[in-house]
Amino acid sequence: MSAVTPEIKARVEELRREINYHNHQYYVLDNPTITDGQYDQLVQELLRLENAYPELVTPDSPTQRVGGEIQKGFTAVQHRVPMLSLSNAFSENDLREFDRRVRSNLPGEEVEYVLELKIDGLAISLWYEQGVFVRGATRGDGELGEDITANLRTIKAIPLRIKESIPFLEVRGEAYMPKESFVRLNEAREEAGEPLFANPRNAAAGSLRQLDPRVTASRNLSVFMYAIGHLEGANPGTHARLLGWLKDLGFRVNQHYKLCKDIEEVIRQIDKWQEQRFELPYAIDGLVIKVNSLDQQQRLGATLKSPRWAIAYKFPAEQAVSTIKDIIIRV
Ligand code: NAD
């Protein structure tokens, strides 16, 4: 391996500075100044350099931590289990590489995957005690989130009481703004001379992280739930059964998930969603692929930033093009 030169070290530091700046714009101010594709390219370049020169990896590098922060004015809440990000795949080969890594960690075992839509919103965590909604939070930096309980209570798709009084359930999912609401909100903001939101994800994040819940209530947000953070008193066994169970409890679960017997079946779905996503009433920026067995998920575990049992496949258009015109034109 070649030695680290001052130029390489300087480039790594410059990339970190730039990525941290864009993280702040995106996660704290809800106001990105570059497209997600441009951002992803910066991260990929940093990852390539860190892989080639591991001595340059530092614990505070943006590749090693979840991107968010706690905004002033919100109470911080500690997640019982960290809320992580997802590693990214940009090609079919990246998905096959992911599958190889998964199977090499589970020698001789069959591995099934669940394919889900990657909803372009922000991750939320909901706590239920004895079946009653008691607290809701953003992902924040993964360890600490923002308490947004009052705002989440205004979202009609979130049940205030679920159908079973399970002692404790933490359910996770995505809060999002439907495309139509996003376009209408931006039109109203334009008329009022206010700055526009860059995409539905930033609009949803800006609408949820409001100190006045009446503002959130006026923004027509919705949710899809797709994971468990912590559960006492039940074990659905597989991710596909978990989704069905969440639905039976009264949660809104996205209907377009698919159980696939191997990675090739996952890959065969990509073209279909690349086209069909424009017909959906909400924005998606890719697909999420998850190992189906919850036991295998647990054995695969996670790095500090992302689980080893899941990956996000990003659509090529999202990698290169700003989404706002795309969304407005195609609504
Ligand atoms: P991510 O968006 O790539 O993936 C993780 C997130 O996916 C989860 O936290 C969850 O909120 C979401 N998700 C949606 N549907 C899901 C499903 N079905 N199952 C599980 N999770 C699902 O990771 P991230 O850390 O939240 O954000 C990084 C991405 O944000 C970047 O790749 C980039 O696209 C964007 N970003 C852009 C800028 C910018 O300046 N444009 C800055 C920072 C981040």
Tags for this model:
single chain; 331 residues; alpha+beta; Helix Hairpins; D-amino Acid Aminotransferase, Chain A, domain 1; 2 domains; 5-stranded mixed sheet; 4-stranded antiparallel sheet; 11 strands; 39% helix; 20% strand; disordered C terminus; binds nicotinamide-adenine-dinucleotide; DNA ligase
Question: Overview of this structure, please?
Answer:
The chain is of the alpha+beta class and 331 residues long. The chain has 2 domains: 1-64, Helix hairpin bin (Helix Hairpins), CATH 1.10.287; 65-330, DNA ligase/mRNA capping enzyme (D-amino Acid Aminotransferase, Chain A, domain 1, 2-Layer Sandwich), CATH 3.30.470. It has 13 helices and 11 strands. It has helices at residues 6-28, 36-52, 92-104, 149-152, 179-191, 200-208, 213-217, 239-249, 263-268, 270-276, 294-300, 316-320, 323-330; strands at residues 76-78, 88-89, 113-119, 122-129, 132-138, 144-146, 168-176, 222-232, 258-260, 284-291, 310-314. The strands form 3 sheets. A 5-stranded mixed beta sheet has the order 2-11-10-3-9. Strands 5-4-7-8 form a 4-stranded antiparallel beta sheet. A hairpin with a 2-residue loop joins strand 4 and strand 5. The termini are far apart. Nicotinamide-adenine-dinucleotide binds next to helix 1, helix 2, strand 3 and strand 4. Nicotinamide-adenine-dinucleotide is lined by residues 22-23, 25-26, 32, 34-36, 39-40, 67, 85-86, 88, 116, 118-119, 122-123, 139, 174, 226, 288, 312. NAD(+) binds at residues 36-40, 85-86, 116, 139, 174, 290, 314. This is DNA ligase. The active site is at residue 118.
